[in-house]
Amino acid sequence: MTTALPAIGNDPLAPGALDVPGGAAGGLAAPRKLSRKQKAAIIVRLLLAEGVKLSLADLPEALQAELAQQIATMRFVDRVTLKAVIDEFVAEIEDVGLSFPGGLEGALWVLDGTISAATASRIRKARGIVFHGDPWSTIAALAPDRLMPVLEEESVEVAAVLLSKLKVSTAADLISRLPGPRARRVAYAVSLTGAIEPQVVERIGRSLAEQLDAQPARAFSEGPVERVGAILNFASGATRDEVLQGLDEEDAAFAEEVRKAIFTFANIPARIDPRDVPKITREVDQAVLITALAGATGALTPSAEFILEAMSKRMADQLREEMENLGTVKPREAEEAMNAVVNAIRELEAAGEILLIADDE
């Protein structure tokens, strides 16, 4: 559980006083007054002793430093004093009906998903707001296409820091899109990131987050090549061939990019690592898998054989026997089953569980 420390009064570290009967801070026996700094220190120490995970990082650094200094000067607090501080703290909490985040950035965080990203971006620009929060969490949530310009245009050192902070599967996808020389320079720069200080990585993250946040929102999360490729992935073979032929006549370069984006059952031997086949087959119902394998005839036979050969011999023999028992599969049923296998592969790839081998590899 993560708990933010509520204020005692208006400011948890502001000067103030409380008469504490029958007890004292600092181990004294006589009653004395406690400042708000001391009360805040007592509450923080108590919560930490109870194993509560506090989130004080959003406090101004000056207040965090004052809190640490106050805790460093205190020694002992008797039970009467502790109870008095807790009672006041609980009373303050119970009197709070509703709290609002501090600052406009906090308001935008609360409204995230309620107002459009374009509106939030315009508000930030108009007010000159500096990005707050964990920048790398924000960056990691962005689509790879939005991160590609950073790898292509920024220095290799910045690109190396970016790759180092991303999920391995995402970083591998991004670096595979770079030209060979650039990819090699960035990969070498990654080897030098061990000496970078944490505050430098933080500054790079904030700079990139502000830069990426300033980009205009797009109506579609994916580019036209990916969208057309995804549509044709699940179209019938005849429709797919007809559309690609038409694209060749209209824009041959676009048609070629779409072909690279398309992943069908026929692409399995060229783009799937044999070691990933067990993961894929576990995601597909066995009856559907048998139908797909039995229906993969003609030009699709190599895909079925590739899947069977990547399994254990016992499992492959069992599936071959069931394929023979199934007999001839109707083309429509075979295509639906093969699309189910392709869909499982796409879902695993999107989740980072497997990586598709690039066509040019």
Automatic annotation (TrEMBL):
<comment type="similarity">
    <text>Belongs to the FliG family.</text>
</comment>
<dbReference type="InterPro" id="IPR023087">
    <property type="entry name" value="Flg_Motor_Flig_C"/>
</dbReference>
<keyword id="KW-0975">Bacterial flagellum</keyword>
<keyword id="KW-0969">Cilium</keyword>
<dbReference type="InterPro" id="IPR000090">
    <property type="entry name" value="Flg_Motor_Flig"/>
</dbReference>
<keyword id="KW-0145">Chemotaxis</keyword>
<dbReference type="InterPro" id="IPR032779">
    <property type="entry name" value="FliG_M"/>
</dbReference>
<dbReference type="InterPro" id="IPR011002">
    <property type="entry name" value="FliG_a-hlx"/>
</dbReference>
<protein>
    <recommendedName>
        <fullName>Flagellar motor switch protein FliG</fullName>
    </recommendedName>
</protein>
<feature type="domain" description="Flagellar motor switch protein FliG N-terminal">
    <location>
        <begin position="33"/>
        <end position="125"/>
    </location>
</feature>
<dbReference type="Pfam" id="PF14841">
    <property type="entry name" value="FliG_M"/>
</dbReference>
<dbReference type="Pfam" id="PF14842">
    <property type="entry name" value="FliG_N"/>
</dbReference>
<keyword id="KW-0282">Flagellum</keyword>
<feature type="domain" description="Flagellar motor switch protein FliG C-terminal">
    <location>
        <begin position="246"/>
        <end position="356"/>
    </location>
</feature>
<keyword id="KW-0283">Flagellar rotation</keyword>
<comment type="function">
    <text>FliG is one of three proteins (FliG, FliN, FliM) that forms the rotor-mounted switch complex (C ring), located at the base of the basal body. This complex interacts with the CheY and CheZ chemotaxis proteins, in addition to contacting components of the motor that determine the direction of flagellar rotation.</text>
</comment>
<feature type="domain" description="Flagellar motor switch protein FliG middle">
    <location>
        <begin position="144"/>
        <end position="217"/>
    </location>
</feature>
<keyword id="KW-0472">Membrane</keyword>
<keyword id="KW-1003">Cell membrane</keyword>
<dbReference type="InterPro" id="IPR028263">
    <property type="entry name" value="FliG_N"/>
</dbReference>
<keyword id="KW-0966">Cell projection</keyword>
<dbReference type="Pfam" id="PF01706">
    <property type="entry name" value="FliG_C"/>
</dbReference>
